[in-house]
């Protein structure tokens, strides 16, 4: 459906912000678009929606009920006069009439656009995309075309047929997309993935998508999906669930990033082995971990080390994860990154070849200055500035003389260091010039000298710079102090607001302090009632925790076990662990963390009611402060206390 909603109610936005946990004062500020409130996202005001379902009266009734319920909850109304419905060519007229009657929409569409593309992208692509040709033809048939010369007509055709402005492309796009350490600027754009409505039921109803064939008379969407499957496989990694579907020696399910072989079977340790061995035989289901003894019998030590870092998720079947994201879920951004890397492999090898200017370009990116000056330095080192010498080298005509001093050979080095204006500017800047003057042959030598000057300051330069920065810092402090005093008058509340749990519940705030170089991890929790009063609080020191994720899991399990031992039945757990909490609540978004999520979810089932909430660090600051005392002050003794913290 297109253009379904024409209004949005502030009451709905207010209730939505309150449900997300925003403070009432903040909600009022956001709704009124206060001075410090963030801008409301444009998608909240989107009036174009597209729904797809099977052409049946029963599904039409369900869709109608969903839209009606949503309208009652949000205060929005459907404009059926401006809505349209599209049917497939095999849907009978009787079914079309009944579905239209249920939805109350009698306008048939399909020819409009959604997100810039035709709603119905089937049939002849020449007819569907013919409007592009018509648009160009209309522009070329303008009245002023008769007054143009042949060269003018050629320019008009180029401008009309392309949406890109007519500029000189100094650097190839592939080189721009290279990382900064090998000469690029790390530019990237996001592309959209093709969509196909329910391809599984039509093209691979009984097999996996990775094994599906093209089939007979495939649609445009299905061909597009298979075109990207080869790239998709390069970013997938097999994770062991219950181990029923993975053959240990015949399937490519194991990957060690250190050897660079990609997906493979584990290395064979013994001379004889069972070809039919399944991964299920290597799992201790009672402990929900690998059977370490079974692993040592058949695998080499390096493969065992990798397996122990990825324990099986015994509560589900074997599954795939996207290895280029921490969450394990595919994103268009990571897919584009992989596609760019695969496409530019040879270019990256050439860019990393020595000798090169990469080190000099990296120094330019590290200069403490504004981004536009950093980009200018990169352009100067990459021959991407609009000077006559480079313009002539690209086959275009221009005056090769400098328009300021009249000398021939206007190069980047001449403009920045050799021109009369440039020399006068450097002389007035009080920056010492090289002992032999600026090089006339190499701009790289001159820029290298300039970048080295920031490391070779004299004591007088350091002292004068320190005085200047101190004066600026004192001025900034005075300005910030006056702003803080003004804000203190407007906002007298200094403490962060307490977000209360539902009535009759308790709230457990969890804090953590983990450091890779520290031998201890600090953990703490605080239990409050629904009015914010502290009931109990505790601290604990954990030792030898290798990763931050493992620390979050251990601290969360400890907090759950502690509140269970205190016989609380309805608990709201609050922490700043956005990844672990979302993996429990929304497992489809974090497939890579399902082992940790399944452990935590199992322990939470003992409560009558529970919830996991992610809050800003300032809202769980008291628990975090107690946890920090383990690492910062060395208070490793555990305790459990009742009453207030002070």
Describe this structure in words.
With 646 residues, this protein is an alpha+beta fold. Helix 18 crosses helix 19 (420-428). Helix content is 41%, strand content 9%. The strands form four sheets. A six-stranded mixed sheet has the order 11-10-7-8-9-12. It has a two-stranded antiparallel sheet with strand order 1-2. The protein has helices at 10-19, 24-31, 57-74, 93-103, 125-128, 130-140, 150-161, 173-176, 199-203, 220-234, 292-298, 301-309, 332-343, 345-352, 358-365, 371-381, 388-393, 412-418, 420-428, 443-453, 459-490, 548-565, 578-585, 594-604, 621-632, and strands spanning 113-114, 117-118, 236-239, 283-284, 289-290, 319-322, 506-513, 520-528, 534-543, 570-575, 609-614, 639-642.
Short description:
The protein has about 650 residues and is α+β, with helices and mostly antiparallel strands. It contains 25 helices and 12 strands. Among the domains are: about 10-120, no CATH class; about 130-165; about 360-455, no CATH class; about 455-485; about 505-640, Nucleotidyltransferase, domain 5, CATH 3.30.420.10.
